[in-house]
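Incident log, structure service

09:12 report received: a user says their structure output differs between two submissions of the same chain.
09:20 pulled the input from the user's history:
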Amino acid sequence: MSILTVLLVAIFFAAWKAPRWVKEIGQIALFFGFLGTVLGLLQVLDVLGEYASKGEGPLGLFDVVPIGVICGGLKVTLNTTIYGIGIYLVSLIVRIVQKPRL
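09:34 re-ran on a clean worker, output below:
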């Protein structure tokens, strides 16, 4: 998330110094948002796999980990995507505001 925050600051700096880079920085932020989600999902699935190997009841994984914990982990992994999409939208708005200047 800190990389995404740096990219958000870079968008405003680029809008002032290098307006042509605003779109590209926004796309990089979108990519990092999705990358953060994929890495978060890998971590969640790794932890769930460890718990599933310990479950010995008829339901396996769900005997050990409550479904609320699983849903909470999945919700946390989506935060980076939401933040990346928000930064991309900011870059589009900055480009729209700058467009009238020729």
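09:41 both user submissions now match this output. Likely a transient worker issue. Closing.
09:42 reviewer note: Residues 22-54 form the longest helix (33 residues). The two ends are 35 Å apart (CA to CA).
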